[in-house]
What we know:
Blueprint: E1 6-9, E2 18-21, H1 23-28, H2 31-49, H3 58-66, H4 84-87
Helix pairs in contact: 2-3
The structure holds zinc ion (ZN).
Amino acid sequence: xxxxxxxxxxxxxxxxxxxxxxxxxxxRDPWDDVLHTLVHEMVHQWQDQHGMPLDHGQAFRAKARAVxxxxxxxxxxxxxxxxxxxxxxxxxxxx
Length: 95
Ligand SMILES: [Zn+2]
């Protein structure tokens, strides 16, 4: 996880869904920022739990605002909708 702050990975390949945060993010950035990243990823988890596309579209923005974080994603949606094995194959993703 060199180029992203965190990510949400859907369950797959016998593995549970997972949220990961960048160690670099934890070490370099204020905890408020890291908390924002965590909640951002939790909104993706919420999308997954409700069978929604994992993106930064209207539903994402509405939920982000509802839980008190910025609805703006600074980068495009990550490949979180892809199976875990694909996500581990070197795809870069963003929070
Ligand atoms: Zn995101």
